[in-house]
């Protein structure tokens, strides 16, 4: 933090006009030099061959002018695909970027050539967020990353093994029957509490100062990341006054202070045997890896790099931080979309509740073992994730070597954006894709059916490491809610807007609902039940 502060002071001591001229001159000089090198044969490889259709591009700005407008990026990319074809290129500033709009090409990038496109671009905000790529999602592909990912995968499996305790978490703030409530705050609190329980075994009552701190820093990070896109395209903008980066740095500092405290507490109390939570499992795995390295034992797929640097405390901290950044926002947003679509389709809600009544009844809470017997409920969750993917564009990939997509050669270093919105709304694979139809995910016998083009968590080497955990968490939340309550629109209020708003994730606009009268409303509190379970990730 001291080094960063010194840099800020030194930058602010320069006359703003001089600083702006220096930055623009430096950026222009770099672009001119790059152009001269291309003209002089310095770059003998075109970005793609045969050439891909490419959006118009200007020096410095790239294709950004072609992307301006009211449409969010996923819809703009989809529309441009109708004009330029399903696979096209553009320049995000100086960065050559390929946009993938179809399952056929996404399968090449994610699965068939998954390792060739498993890289991640370095971006200023994510470098700050992850201490230079010490997490899983944004870290570049390497032997160390594979070791780290394997540790996290095994930790998700180990920390829940053998436990069957139920945690009653969250409340709907004492809302009376028929009273309109905004479901966002109680759901966000409940999901945050679940993640706190799974990561460091802390369960909070509503209003607890530490829970409030977690929610505030997490929301601050989410909001600032959503506004910080331009500095990731033009990193030199960080030298200009930037309140977004300042706020992001402050939120990260609060996050790291809290998580470092939890980590030190776990180090002191760590014992061998069954881990209590994710931090325990990560620390045990870290110790095991260090022991293996010290004794000359190499893990599967390890290399010389792995001997030189192992899993540090920063890796453990950033994994815990990622559980909040990825787990809280995506899960709570998906739950909001589920409720929004159920308000629009009450017959779907009734069918889910009928299935729950037949399989689970009212005498106990749903648990993980019920999932195989509740295919329609699962299909509702899948259809929500299809029609409103919280990540409509996957995290950017980078070509680690010269490769190809759709017969076009792609140069090493090219960025690739997979437009999951376009794939999940492609009429070639989905009949009437704009219609909400959970039956898409059921076969003729009413059992689960998952089309290969359904990839809400990505696929291949970069598939979300927490996919199984997230799916089971969603199942337990949705089943627990709909077993106990019926939801209906607030009187005199329009149904939720289903267009959504894109920030870090695709969120529904604010809406209200009521808990209807009936046998499902015997309690004045909305108890959300989550189970610590064994995660069997693929």
Automatic annotation (TrEMBL):
Membrane topology: Peripheral membrane protein
GO cellular component, one term: endoplasmic reticulum membrane
Top enzyme class: oxidoreductase
InterPro entries recorded: Cyt_P450, Cyt_P450_CS, Cyt_P450_E_grp-I, Cyt_P450_sf
Keywords on record: Endoplasmic reticulum, Heme, Iron, Lipid-binding, Membrane, Metal-binding, Microsome, Monooxygenase, Oxidoreductase, Steroidogenesis
GO molecular function: heme binding; iron ion binding; lipid binding; steroid 17-alpha-monooxygenase activity; steroid 21-monooxygenase activity
Signal peptide start and end residues: none
One GO biological process term: hormone biosynthetic process
Residues the record lists as binding heme: 464
Predominant cellular place of this UniProt entry's protein: endoplasmic reticulum
A Pfam family recorded for this sequence: p450
Subcellular location per the Swiss-Prot or TrEMBL entry: Endoplasmic reticulum membrane; Microsome membrane
Enzyme Commission numbers on file: 1.14.14.16
Cofactor(s) demanded: heme
Region feature Disordered, mapped onto this chain: 290-310
PANTHER family associated with the record: CYTOCHROME P450 FAMILY 17 POLYPEPTIDE 2, STEROID 17-ALPHA-HYDROXYLASE/17,20 LYASE
Family named by the database record: Belongs to the cytochrome P450 family.
Protein name: Steroid 21-hydroxylase
Source organism per UniProt: Oncorhynchus tshawytscha (Chinook salmon)
């Amino acid at each position: 933090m001291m080094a960063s502060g010194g840099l800020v002071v030194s930058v602010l001591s320069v006359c703003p006009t001089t600083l702006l001229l220096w930055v623009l001159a430096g950026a222009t000089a770099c672009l001119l030099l790059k152009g001269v090198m291309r003209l002089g044969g310095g770059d003998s490889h075109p970005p793609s061959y045969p050439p891909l259709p490419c959006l118009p591009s200007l020096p410095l700005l790239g294709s950004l002018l072609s992307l301006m407008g009211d449409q969010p990026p996923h819809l703009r990319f989809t529309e441009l695909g109708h004009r330029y074809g399903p696979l096209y290129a553009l320049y995000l500033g100086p960065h050559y970027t390929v946009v993938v709009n179809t399952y056929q090409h996404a399968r090449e990038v994610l699965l068939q050539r998954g390792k060739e496109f498993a890289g991640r671009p370095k971006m200023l905000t994510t470098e700050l967020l992850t201490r230079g790529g010490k997490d899983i999602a944004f870290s570049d592909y390497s032997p160390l990353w594979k070791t780290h990912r394997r540790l996290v995968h095994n930790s998700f499996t180990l920390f829940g093994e053998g436990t069957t305790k139920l945690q009653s978490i969250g409340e709907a703030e004492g809302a009376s029957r028929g009273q309109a409530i905004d479901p966002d705050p109680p759901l966000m609190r409940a999901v945050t509490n679940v993640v706190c329980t799974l990561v460091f075994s802390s369960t909070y009552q509503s209003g607890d100062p530490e829970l409030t701190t977690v929610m505030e820093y997490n929301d601050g990070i989410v909001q600032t990341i959503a506004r910080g896109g331009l500095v990731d395209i033009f990193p030199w903008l960080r030298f200009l006054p930037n309140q977004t980066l300042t706020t992001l740095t402050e939120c990260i500092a609060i996050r790291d202070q809290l998580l470092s405290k939890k980590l030190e507490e776990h180090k002191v109390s760590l014992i061998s045997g069954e881990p209590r939570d994710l931090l325990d499992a990560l620390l045990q795995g870290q110790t095991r890896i260090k022991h293996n390295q010290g004794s000359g034992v190499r893990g599967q797929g390890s290399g010389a790099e792995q001997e030189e640097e192992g899993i540090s405390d920063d890796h453990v901290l950033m994994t815990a931080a990622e559980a909040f950044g990825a787990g809280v926002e995506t899960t709570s947003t998906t739950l909001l979309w589920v409720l929004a679509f159920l308000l629009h389709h009450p017959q779907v809600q009734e069918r889910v509740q009928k299935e729950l009544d037949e399989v689970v009844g009212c005498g106990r809470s749903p648990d993980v073992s019920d999932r195989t017997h509740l295919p329609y409920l699962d299909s509702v969750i899948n259809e929500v994730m299809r029609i409103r993917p919280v990540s409509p564009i996957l995290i950017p990939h980078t070509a680690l070597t010269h490769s190809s997509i759709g017969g076009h050669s792609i140069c090493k270093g090219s960025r690739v954006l997979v437009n999951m919105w376009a794939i999940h709304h492609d009429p070639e694979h989905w009949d009437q894709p704009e219609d909400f139809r959970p039956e898409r995910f059921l076969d003729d016998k009413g059992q689960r059916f998952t089309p290969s083009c359904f990839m809400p968590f990505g696929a291949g080497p970069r598939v979300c490491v927490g996919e199984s955990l997230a799916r089971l968490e969603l199942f337990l939340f949705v089943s627990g809610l709909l077993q106990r309550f019926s939801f209906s629109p607030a009187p005199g209020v329009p149904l939720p807007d289903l267009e959504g708003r894109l920030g870090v994730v695709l969120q529904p606009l604010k809406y209200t609902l009521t808990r209807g009268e009936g046998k499902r409303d015997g309690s004045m509190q909305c108890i959300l039940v989550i189970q610590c379970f064994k995660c069997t990730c693929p």
